[in-house]
Amino acid sequence: MNTQHSDLHQSLVGLFQQLGMYAQANKIATDPQLHFLDTIGFNRQLDRYDIDFSVLPADHKKMMCAIHPFVVIPSDSQAFVARRKDERLEQLAADQTWQPLTNITSMAGAHMVLIEHLPGQRGEQSRFTQELDKRRKWYRPVFWLSLLASITGLTVPLFTMAVYDKVIGGQAPAELPGIAMGAILALAILVVCRIVRAAILCSVSNRMARDLSDMTFSRLLHMPLMVLGRVGISNHIARLRNAERVRMLFSGPGGAGLIDIPFTLIALFTIVLLSGWLVVVPVGMLGLYYLIARGLQKYAQRASPTLSTKHQNSINELTKQLLALKTSGNYSGWIERFIRQTRINCQQNFAYAKRNGLNQAVSHGLSLMTALVTVFTGIFLVLDQSITAGALIASTMLIWRITGPAQLAFASLPKMAMLKSASQQFDNFMKVKTENNELRLEIPDSSGPPSLKFQHVTLRFSATQEPVLSSIDFEICPGEVAVVIGPNQAGKSTLLQAALGVIEPQSGFITINDRNLTQYDPTNFRHWAGYAPAQPDLFPGTLADNLRISRPEATEEELQQALLEAGAATLLDTLGGSLNQDLFEQGYSTLTAIEGSYISLARALLKRSPLLLLDEPIANQNPRARRQFVHTLEQLKGRHTVLFSSHDPELIKHADKVLVLDKGCLVYAGPQPQSQPVQEA
Ligand SMILES: Nc1ncnc2c1ncn2[C@@H]1O[C@H](COP(=O)(O)OP(=O)(O)OP(=O)(O)O)[C@@H](O)[C@H]1O
Question: PROSITE patterns annotated for this entry (predicted)?
Answer without folding.
Answer: ABC_TM1F, ABC_TRANSPORTER_2
